[in-house]
């Protein structure tokens, strides 16, 4: 099931004397966060109005309404920020990485389940899906077109064809 509120970054420190905060973005690009007028704390419970935002050295500097002093900004340090899915539409065949978490991964030829995705990590060349089956066995799957044949995040299902030797059980 898709989450309504998606993690997008973390407030890591204050910036300047006017209550701005620096955010470590958890997005493909820091620029992604510049288009949001509202971000959220506590999985969507607390809305924050963004007065202005800019990218500075791969970080996002935010000015949040009502946060006007360094002390008020410091109180937000280490808070995870969320976006509302409705504010960030994706195109056909696109998805958020968080939508892959808990998807079950099946073999295209045998139908065998290899487990569920519990993490997705970028490697530079491609992402890697981290799987764990019911017995606790972990597997890594390169997210490349030769291996990942189908992603149906609505159904919570990913179909793969492992390269020879990938899963030497």
Automatic annotation (TrEMBL):
Where is this gene product found? Cytoplasm
Q: Matching SUPFAM superfamilies, A to Z?
A: PRC-barrel domain (SSF50346), Translation proteins (SSF50447)
Where does the record place the PRC-barrel domain?
Answer: 92-166
> Could you give one GO CC term from the UniProt record?
cytoplasm
Q: Which Pfam families match?
A: PRC, RimM
Q: Which InterPro entries match?
A: PRC-brl_dom, PRC_barrel-like_sf, RimM, RimM_N, RimM_N_sf, Transl_B-barrel_sf
| Gene Ontology BP term (one) | rRNA processing
User: Which of UniProt's keywords are assigned here?
Assistant: Chaperone, Cytoplasm, Ribosome biogenesis, rRNA processing
Q: Which GO terms describe its molecular function?
A: ribosome binding
Positions of the RimM N-terminal domain: 8-86
Notes concerning its domains: The PRC barrel domain binds ribosomal protein uS19.
Q: Which PANTHER family match?
A: RIBOSOME MATURATION FACTOR RIMM
Q: How does it assemble?
A: Binds ribosomal protein uS19.
Function comment:
An accessory protein needed during the final step in the assembly of 30S ribosomal subunit, possibly for assembly of the head region. Essential for efficient processing of 16S rRNA. May be needed both before and after RbfA during the maturation of 16S rRNA. It has affinity for free ribosomal 30S subunits but not for 70S ribosomes.
NCBIfam families per the record?
Answer: 16S_RimM
Family membership, please give it: Belongs to the RimM family.
Q: What is this protein called?
A: Ribosome maturation factor RimM
Please give the organism. Anaerotruncus massiliensis (ex Liu et al. 2021)
Q: What is the taxonomic lineage of the source species?
A: Bacteria, Bacillati, Bacillota, Clostridia, Eubacteriales
